[in-house]
Design a protein that fits this description.
The complex is a heterodimer.
Chain A (H helix, E strand, L loop, with lengths): L5 E6 L3 H12 L4 E4 L36 E4 L5 E4 L34 H5 L14 H16 L1 E3 L22 H12 L5 E5 L35 H7 L3 E4 L3 E7 L5 E7 L5 E11 L3 H9 L25 E8 L14 E3 L15 E3 L5 H4 L12 H10 L3 E8 L8 E9 L5 E6 L4 H20 L4 E5 L31 E2 L2 E6 L14 H18 L4
Parallel strand pairs in A: 1-2, 1-10, 2-7, 3-16, 10-19
Antiparallel strand pairs in A: 3-4, 5-6, 6-12, 8-9, 9-10, 11-14, 11-17, 12-13, 13-14, 15-16, 18-19
Chain B lengths: L8 H14 L17 H14 L13 H8 L8 H19 L8 H12 L13 H17 L11 H6 L18
The chains are: A alpha+beta, B mainly alpha.
Chain lengths: 547, 186
């Protein structure tokens, strides 16, 4: 059934989609914002240690639903497995209004200048599709600022001598430091490093009509009980709806992008909340479904002009799937360092993002979010039993004495780390599902070893009596920082979208989420996704003539 | 004296009656199975296993903390697809322990139980009779579920009286801003 035409359909009400919907609605566009998940709010906060987006023992709290959304993982040895959203290898983020921003830890990083030209900075990397972005940090700078002030970022990066230049300070101060923060800060200074307070998309004072963080221990992976965690669900999306120009439709699962015989998009076919197939005609389609789901939607949008999926003429859709190669170290102290002041993560050093001898890139290093008991119970040193009396004594003795420092190592993209659509497996709605295959570039492990050792040095200087490393596996990356599958580029033969995130050759199809990142920085990527969404929205609003 | 052992006998009986009442069975008819999915023997074996994974000392062990109750509840919920795995795994487990020691697991000494669990953990015994799942995979599942039931939120049927959170020194119930989350067993 065909619905009344709109100017723009946005697929996915997450970080990118929320900003685009609001910017276009405020510019007078009629927008249909489709979201396959539900609209949760602070009233859906349950603080359930076993059911959240981080610990999925009893399922994912914020989607996608377990029964209807399988994926297929293909292993290097030729076997494959069907997985559910709560399985670690699914590469899930979330599926709800706000997307990952509803339940994330909310680190709000600007990438550094070099992060946009990794190839020019470090040279080509054999076996990697490492390339520069077709835009620079300066192209994004004013939009980073918009995201920081409109969605709301707190923190203090004035001590970060490595950061890219900013014109305006952050709107909110950092939270008062915990004992862990103070301990790590002095240690970092003794080592000659440059610690600073992590920028966070979190209210530390009243801002945007909502109050400040209550400093509980249930942050990353949880809804915020007091609505102090800022995402698109409690900022730009309500603004979009208030204009009267935006229609948010939840439980709406996109099936394919519709095209005409000239190869321009004409709208989106989707299953509504009653599982009925609808066709939403539109002048423009913006795909913001996450690096895995956006690639899937393009690959499932086949036609005579695009037999392998729209935008996929050169087989680059779904390629270069990346996340971050997380690594770091755990330290045990001989005193109680835990003071129950959340969210836990608060201090960072950017000394090892770039300029590491013999390595391309690196990572920011941060202390970790608070570990709930069920999480700490699995964090035993390599020489400790995993069960029995000794294990119980370890948990009892050291629960309040652990400090963890971790960093998101920037990965070298790999062409065969990819998203395809499975030839057989389908979801509840009959749509071919994501098929994941490939693995990390071997140099990621080398960089991770270096970064983990720097984390260890920091913990030792802070007084840890025992430390051990945490290193990533060699398998496929992605997960909550998923990126890269529809990369930006000037050459249509080696990219999917142009510098304005228009799909090459299809001027009314845009991709605005982490898919377009050529490389993913040594930082959590969400602020960059938000900033790029502001930038691309500005381009659309300026250049699209509304009838 | 361990805090949880100092509950009076009356309180113990009341707690036990509450558990069976919650299962809808009168405690005056002890021959009925109080569990939702598990058999009495399965529950007894699981209790013995989980009490080695997290043994009682001056803080409760997994059995007192109702880890078996947690597992039983989840086997009627998110773990429903694991029912066959549990059932067949416990049959294989029982067969192996009788082949090794001639008795059920619950009847072994503590030392024997630990030795046997290590064999299971490392696939260090005959794989005869382990068709649906390997010993090591069965062990990993039990370990995960025992940890979840012991350290997880009490609303799911385990971590009785927030025992593990007390053990590590965390405040409970959690200090809340709005307390919109519910603590009922889901």
């Amino acid at each position: 059934m065909e619905l009344k035409r709109v100017n723009a359909v946005v697929v996915g009400a997450g970080a990118g989609g929320g900003v685009v919907a609001k910017e276009l609605a405020c510019a007078g566009f009629r927008v249909a914002l489709l979201e396959r998940g539900k609209w949760y709010t602070a009233f859906d906060c349950r603080k359930d240690d076993l059911r959240n987006q981080r610990t999925t023992a009893l399922g994912c709290a914020f989607g996608p639903d377990e029964q209807r959304n399988p994926r297929v993982i293909a292993f290097p040895n030729g076997t494959q497995q069907i997985v559910k959203p709560s399985d670690g290898s699914y590469s899930n983020n979330a599926a709800c209004v706000g997307g990952g921003t509803f339940s994330y830890g909310a680190m709000a990083w600007r990438f550094m200048e070099k992060d946009f030209h990794m190839r020019s900075a470090y040279g080509s990397v054999p076996g990697s599709t490492l390339e520069d972005w077709p835009i620079s940090y300066q192209d994004l700078e004013p939009h980073y600022e918009r995201a920081e002030w409109e969605i709301g970022v707190s923190g203090d990066d004035s001590g970060n001598i490595f950061k890219a230049p900013r014109r305006k300070a952050l709107p909110m101060p950092p939270l008062p430091p915990s004992l862990e923060h103070i301990t790590l800060e002095s240690a970092a200074r003794r080592l000659g490093l440059h610690p600073f307070s992590i920028p966070m998309l979190r209210n530390t004072v009243s801002f945007n009509g909502r109050g400040a963080c209550m400093r509980c221990r249930w942050c990353v992976g949880f809804a915020c009980e007091v609505d102090a965690k800022n995402g698109t669900h409690n900022t730009v999306i309500p603004v979009a709806l208030a204009t009267g120009n935006c229609d948010l439709r939840t439980d709406s699962v996109a099936k394919e992008i519709l095209t005409d015989s000239r190869g321009r998009v004409t709208g989106v076919a989707y299953f509504d909340g009653n599982n009925r197939l609808q066709e939403q005609p539109a002048d423009i389609v913006i795909v913001s479904a996450s690096a895995t789901e956006s690639a899937r939607l393009l690959l499932n949008s086949k036609s005579a002009m695009f037999p392998t999926g729209i935008g996929n003429q050169f087989d680059w859709v779904g390629r270069n799937l990346q996340g971050h190669a997380y690594c770091g170290a755990i330290g045990l102290m001989d005193f109680d360092i835990y003071d129950d002041l959340g969210p836990g993560a608060s201090i960072a050093i950017s000394d090892y993002n770039h300029g590491n001898p013999g390595l391309a890139g690196g990572a920011v290093l941060c202390n970790e979010f608070i570990r709930l008991p069920i999480q700490f119970a699995f964090m035993t040193p390599p020489d400790m039993p995993r069960w029995g009396a000794a294990h119980k004594e370890y948990v009892r003795k050291f629960y309040k004495r652990s400090v963890i420092v971790m960093g998101p190592v920037q990965e070298m993209p790999v062409f065969d780390a990819r998203v395809q659509v499975d030839p057989q497996a389908k979801d509840f709605w009959g749509i071919p599902v994501v098929r994941l295959s490939g693995s990390r570039h071997p140099s990621d492990a080398v960089t991770a070893q270096f970064i983990a050792e720097r984390a260890q040095d920091w913990l030792c200087e802070a007084g840890a009596i025992k430390t051990w490393l945490r290193l990533p596996g060699p398998g496929l990356s992605g997960g909550q920082h998923q990126a890269g599958t529809c990369r930006m580029g000037n050459d249509p033969k080696t990219s999917v979208v142009n510098a304005y995130c228009q799909v090459h050759g299809v001027d009314n199809l845009f991709i605005v989420d982490g898919s377009v990142h050529v490389t993913n920085g040594g930082f959590n990527p969400v602020l960059t996704i938000l900033a790029n969404a502001y930038r691309v929205s500005s381009f659309i609003a300026k250049n699209w003539k509304l009838a | 004296m361990s805090w949880y052992k100092s509950l009076s006998r009356r309180q113990f009986i009341r707690l036990g009656a509450a558990a069976t009442a919650a299962a809808g069975i009168s405690c005056n008819r002890p021959s009925l199975n109080p569990w939702r999915f598990l058999s009495v023997n399965e529950a007894r074996t699981l209790a013995a296993i989980c009490d080695q994974l997290i043994p009682p000392d001056h803080d409760p062990g997994a059995d007192w903390a109702r880890v078996v109750n947690f597992i039983d509840i989840q086997l009627c919920g998110p773990f429903v697809l694991l029912r066959k795995t549990y059932r067949h795994g416990l049959i294989s487990f029982d067969r192996s322990v009788r082949a090794q020691f001639g008795q059920s697991f619950a009847a072994l000494t503590v030392e024997q139980q630990v030795v046997f669990l290590r064999l299971i953990e490392t696939n260090g015994l005959s794989l005869d009779g382990w068709r649906q799942i390997s010993p090591t995979d069965f062990f990993e599942m039990l370990l995960n579920h025992t940890m979840q039931g012991y350290y997880g939120d009490p609303r799911h049927g385990g971590n009785r009286d927030h025992a593990s959170w007390k053990m590590v020194g965390l405040s409970y119930p959690p200090i809340a801003g709005r307390q919109h989350y519910d603590e009922r067993i889901s």
